[in-house]
């Protein structure tokens, strides 16, 4: 049983509920139909505003944890930072990189590493196509619920606040954080100081609807962290969008910020090559057509070709493996389709990438100029 500030980390008695199909059910009652005006149970009221898919289990389309023995350099750097952050001056970490660079996979792995070391971790994974977690509305309730699960003593502090103000989840994001997260943590810290830092992890900030909401979320949390009233460290993960760069560049945040860009310093290419080699090896052992696959397939030069085309983005390599490993089709022929050596027909090897980049281009303000730049780049390469 984990301990934080001398408090046992078990679920509070009132948490007699389960999650079914991404919906909260308590005593046989689905909590989706909820009236904020007539609640008597603060904890039940809290549950009705939680986004279970933002923290509990992997949904379709979510990134898994990092492939074994990959991304070790960045994972080691981040978990070392978590362990030492409260003794230094950098209490916020910003993991940033291009779409498909593996940020969410790294974030999920960091959560696992923190839990192994018995840190309290409250996390929220935004996902742009999931309406239950693509906005800021459920963030505070979800984080508060996770904190209560890990630190049950917070239940007696947070739920009375909700009971006395049942419309609290209609308040501004800043007010919700202050009433239900920051003040309860400060009160508990005064009564029983935390033995280890608490970790907040907010993944996919750029997938939250509304640039202003993204900025407000970062600034609200950063303002409290900067006060250094409790041992709290925060990890944000996102693409390096211009408005987010400006937010993290503000002096009050930059002074306590550790930046972790997913660039060549973290050897993505070698990790991608390892992932490809092991994945192809597994295909040759397990695939129904394994007897028809040559021992030398794929050649080292072919693996290097895919690694180079990945350009440090794990999503390309993972999409290739997903397409090639289809159990009903011949892996060698599937890889030839990926390489453009065989017609695809009705198959869509890069459907996931197409969807991702359609979304990226839909956010571009001056699409004509960007298209022209890309056209020029294509003709000069």
UniProtKB/TrEMBL annotation:
Q: A single Pfam family, by name? A: NPHP3_N
Q: Which InterPro entries match?
A: NPHP3-like_N, P-loop_NTPase
Establish whether keyword Repeat is in the entry: yes
TM ranges are none
Q: Which UniProt keywords apply?
A: Repeat
Q: Which domain of life is it from?
A: Eukaryota
Per the record's keyword annotation, is Repeat included, yes or no?
Answer: yes
Q: Provide the Nephrocystin 3-like N-terminal domain boundaries.
A: 80-239
- What's the protein here called? Nephrocystin 3-like N-terminal domain-containing protein
């Amino acid at each position: 049983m984990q301990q934080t500030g001398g408090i046992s980390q078990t679920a509070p008695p009132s948490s007699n509920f389960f999650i079914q199909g991404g919906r909260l059910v308590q005593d046989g009652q689905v909590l989706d139909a909820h009236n904020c005006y007539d609640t008597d149970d603060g904890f039940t009221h809290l549950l009705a505003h939680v986004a279970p898919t933002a923290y509990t289990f992997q949904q379709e389309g979510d990134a898994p944890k990092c492939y074994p023995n990959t991304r070790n350099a960045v994972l080691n750097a981040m978990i070392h930072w978590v362990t030492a952050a409260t003794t230094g001056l950098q209490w916020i970490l910003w993991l940033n990189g291009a779409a498909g660079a593996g940020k969410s996979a790294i974030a999920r792995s960091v959560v696992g590493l923190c839990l192994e070391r018995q840190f309290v971790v409250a996390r929220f994974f935004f996902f742009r196509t999931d309406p239950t977690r693509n906005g800021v509305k459920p963030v505070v309730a979800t984080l508060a619920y996770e904190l209560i699960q890990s630190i049950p003593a917070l239940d007696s502090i947070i739920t009375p606040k909700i009971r006395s103000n049942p419309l609290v989840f209609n308040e501004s994001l800043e007010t919700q954080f202050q009433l239900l997260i920051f003040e309860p943590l400060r009160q508990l810290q005064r009564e029983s100081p935390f033995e280890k830092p608490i970790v907040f992890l907010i993944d996919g900030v750029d997938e939250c609807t509304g640039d202003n909401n993204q900025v407000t979320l970062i600034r609200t949390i950063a303002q409290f962290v900067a006060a250094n009233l409790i041992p709290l460290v925060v990890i944000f993960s996102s693409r390096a969008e211009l408005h987010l760069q400006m937010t993290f560049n503000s002096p009050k945040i930059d002074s306590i910020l550790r930046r972790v860009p997913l660039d060549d310093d973290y050897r993505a290419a070698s990790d991608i090559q390892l992932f490809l080699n092991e994945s192809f090896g597994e295909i040759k052992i397990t695939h129904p057509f394994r007897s028809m696959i040559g021992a030398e397939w794929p050649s080292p030069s072919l693996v290097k070709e895919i690694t180079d085309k990945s350009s440090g983005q794990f999503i390309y390599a993972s999409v290739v493996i997903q397409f090639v490993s289809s159990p009903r089709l011949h892996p060698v022929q599937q890889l030839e389709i990926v390489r453009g050596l065989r017609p695809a027909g009705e198959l869509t090897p890069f459907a996931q990438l197409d969807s991702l980049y359609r979304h990226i281009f839909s956010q571009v303000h001056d699409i004509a100029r960007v298209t022209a730049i890309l056209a020029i780049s294509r003709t000069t390469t």
